[in-house]
Amino acid sequence: AQSVTQPDIHITVSEGASLELRCNYSYGATPYLFWYVQSPGQGLQLLLKYFSGDTLVQGIKGFEAEFKRSQSSFNLRKPSVHWSDAAEYFCAVGEDGNKLVFGAGTILRVKS
Amino acid sequence: EAGVVQSPRYKIIEKKQPVAFWCNPISGHNTLYWYRQNLGQGPELLIRYENEEAVDDSQLPKDRFSAERLKGVDSTLKIQPAELGDSAVYLCASSPPWDRYGYTFGSGTRLTVV
């Protein structure tokens, strides 16, 4: 079975600073990879996804992620964080049958 | 376009009581999912429907959980009887046939069992 590891439970960054959230996955073939964001009391919103092709993926809200096969990683980045980015972020990998396997999430706090 | 609608948003029940959650997916989305999200964890799939057929219910605790999707549209997830460990957020999602992983999630139902 596939698995996703998000090593950081909490991350705090200053507003305007850059951000990188880490994600590692285990999967034998080329994975389908996703990043979702969840604000309190809200459902999950898709930020970006990688299926194939260019390993640098652009998403919504200024986020990007880079697929690195050699490191089994799919880290999420943003060059300048805004206070409204404070939320919980989930990395996920797609399994057969449209199933998503999620990591445990990283809570982002933004300090002004 | 309306999103995935779930009700209720919050539910507090005593242990051993029954509870039901309702989900209305996006029109045209033939695949419907129920995920459970425990505190501090990512969502985990409970059951997946293709139209009215449950095609993956391997993670559904069938001794106390049941689900149905009548006419391939709305779905209901039931727990009877509820246990303290069932406290979690129950998320419904749907996806269309032309976008295999094109999930849209509802806002979830937060269940507290006391």
Please explain how this structure is put together.
The complex is a heterodimer of chains A (112) and B (114). With 112 residues, chain A is mainly beta. Chain A is built from no helices and 12 strands. In chain A, the strands form 3 sheets. In chain A, strands 2, 5, 6, 10, 11 and 12 form a 6-stranded mixed β-sheet that branches. Chain A has a 4-stranded antiparallel β-sheet with strand order 3-9-8-7, with no helix packed on it. Chain A has a two-stranded antiparallel sheet with strand order 1-4. In chain A, a hairpin with a 5-residue loop joins strand 5 and strand 6. The termini of chain A are far apart. The mean pLDDT of chain A is 94. By secondary structure, chain B is an all-beta fold. Helix content of chain B is 0%, strand content 48%. Chain B has no helices and 11 strands. In chain B, the strands form 2 sheets. In chain B, strands 2, 4, 5, 6, 9, 10 and 11 form a 7-stranded mixed β-sheet that branches. Chain B has a 4-stranded antiparallel β-sheet with strand order 1-3-8-7, with no helix packed on it. In chain B, strand 5 (44-50) and strand 6 (53-56) form a beta hairpin. The A-B interface holds A 4, 9, 32, 34, 41-46, 49, 90, 92, 94, 97-100, 102-105 and B 3-4, 9, 31, 33, 40-45, 48, 55-56, 91, 93, 95, 100-101, 103-108.
